[in-house]
Amino acid sequence: MENSAKQEDVRTSEEMAEKLQTISTKLMDDGEKLFFDTLPREILRITRRMDNEELFKLAPKELKSVLYSSIESYIEQITKGMNEQYEYIKEHRKSWKKWVKLNKKERKLEKKGGTEEQRNRLEAKKKKYTVKPLDCMPSKCIIPCCSKTDQLLNSLREEAIIVSDILTSINMWITLKKPRINDGSNFNLSVQEEYVGRLNDVGSAMGLIMDWVTDCYQNRGNYIQKIIDQPEVEDYKQLLLHFDEFAVEKCKIFFYETRNSLAILFDSMAKNINWLYNPKMESDVQHIFI
């Protein structure tokens, strides 16, 4: 009985080890393909993206006129949108309050376990207010963002996500290539550990870029709110204009830094690829990180 149980455990362990080995092999194959094929393509794609971006080619004075034909007309558009919102809210205020009140009653009935008759009566009333007016404002009530900076910020964020995914897979490939430490073959593991650290650093930078894009939208919304609250303060208008100019320049810097970091990383890893594949490799020449 005990022997059969032990055999079953051994069989289960072997099956599990085989499955894990299959997963590891697939992860290594994916990471290797991403390094040799996808990463160089991504570097070229980012380079073309920067070369084709017209905003990156403009001088500061030209950039201002391209972002806004007139900051005053943009502020006027914001003010008009807010006025439309106020009118829309005023028109639907009663139905909105009624809708909120009925939903509160519904939640109370769910907690207390109301009768079937009470639920049916409440449901009949709710049918009159199925649309939430303040959540479904028409387009004329929407305050628009600056379309050019919005496109640029979204493009930068998407790029950071793509690069982060690529680096994560390459990192896994290098990590899984490490031999067992207890078999005495960890002589040159410092090469692999060096590149794992570099990949983590670039990946962390991508996370900071995504956080910065989120902060950009939040800060811009705060500036617009200040303009709405105090339209007579000219400094707030200039603040918004300068913020959008700064966002474009910052995006340009992030694109260049991302492309350069990936290019340097790929070049260095390609020159030391033998050490990554075979950390036990011996050489008469002392290895120097490039």
Structure description:
GO terms for molecular function: endopeptidase activator activity. Keywords: Proteasome. One of its GO terms (cellular component) is nucleoplasm. By secondary structure, this protein is mostly helical. The protein folds into two domains: 30-68 and 146-277, Proteasome activator pa28, C-terminal domain (Four Helix Bundle (Hemerythrin (Met), subunit A), Up-down Bundle), CATH 1.20.120.180; 75-140. Helix content is 78%, strand content 0%. It is built from eight helices and no strands. The protein has helices at residues 2-52, 60-67, 71-112, 116-126, 147-176, 189-229, 234-271, 273-277. Helix 2 (60-67) packs across helix 7 (234-271) and helix 5 (147-176) packs antiparallel against helix 6. Mean pLDDT is 79; it is low at 282-290.
